[in-house]
Amino acid sequence: MHYPHLLSPLPVGELTLPNRIVMPPLVIWKAGLDGMVTQEHVDHYARSAGPGLCIVEATAVSPEGRLAATQIGAWSDEQVDGLARLAATVHGWGGVAGIQIHHAGIKGTKERNGGLPTLVPSLVAGAPKGAVELTPDTIRDVIEAFATATRRCLDAGFDVIELHGAHGYLGSQFLSPASNRRSDEWGGPIEHRARFLVECTRAARVAIDRSGHRAALAVRLGLADGGDPPLTIDDGCAAAALLVDAGVDLFDVSNGGSQPTRRDEWTRATTLELARIARTRVDRPVIGVGGVKSADEAEELLGSGVADLVAVGRAILADQQWAAKIIDGRADQIDRCIDCKPRCFHFTEPENCPPRRARNRLLSAR
Ligand SMILES: Cc1cc2nc3c(=O)[nH]c(=O)nc-3n(C[C@H](O)[C@H](O)[C@H](O)COP(=O)(O)O)c2cc1C
Fold this sequence. Notes:
The chain is an alpha/beta fold.
């Protein structure tokens, strides 16, 4: 088995990724009190060794931006030591350490984030009771939170900072005309709707440049969504061009999903097709994601020019040795993710992931 594309290095900004396998951000809901990294996180990432780029899971930039009390955070200097353990874990296998920084916006309900108000671009249908529309001043506060979180993640030793601009979270909510109904400079035409992500990018870029670290800046961009009205691919590409001008080095392309998340949004055709389009229209390397299970599929995607890097999410959760087995020439021994429907068990019951359960049964029978 030979994977010349998958196992070749790629320069990104001033960094070189040792291979083209990306572990995308995958929340595991194991934070301790106050969004602190726990030993369970460290063990989880240590078991996932091998990807050239590992992007640590969605990390909240502020307490009200959390999706859950068990999400890790980068809103306090006290969180830096724990984050540093994760960066060191990835460096330990020779990988480039990335981290995704995140604000849940409309999805950060009071019940989940300790009673803090839910902040939204516009009070659209579906906003939780008590949600508060962001003002120009509070928008600036959130952008500042992204900048400070970037600085903390750099202090922790991360090489790639990824801003979450997909999946219906705050960056997507601003981009999408369905969830952004503002008539000020933060809403309306795509140049205005992209302003929030552009300003977060500029602020993160300044933090990187000031830090003296050779870090790269990525955006997970929801290139399009199925909202009413939708974020079109043309608008998504226009936003990407503005983000390039603001200092983005790498795009992690996914969907916007601003409307109630449809189960099929993470299907291979949709998000990989978005990556392919972005790659032809955006002047930066692109990560493609969505349903990749085997090394052969990943190799084929790279060989046919769909993306520059392939992210493998659920398949790595199902077999954390996924990348290591390919690197060691044991790709045929990967325990294959079976694409559980309607939703991956890892969101709530990782112990019930079928390939993991089968492996554990085998081990305990020995
Ligand atoms: C358990 C789980 C947790 C996830 N957590 C995040 C996250 O923290 N941030 C994010 O942008 N996407 C997250 N995703 C989406 C994945 O990064 C990825 O885009 C998606 O699973 C599709 O890739 P796959 O088909 O290879 O799994 C998560 C997905 C799963 C299954």
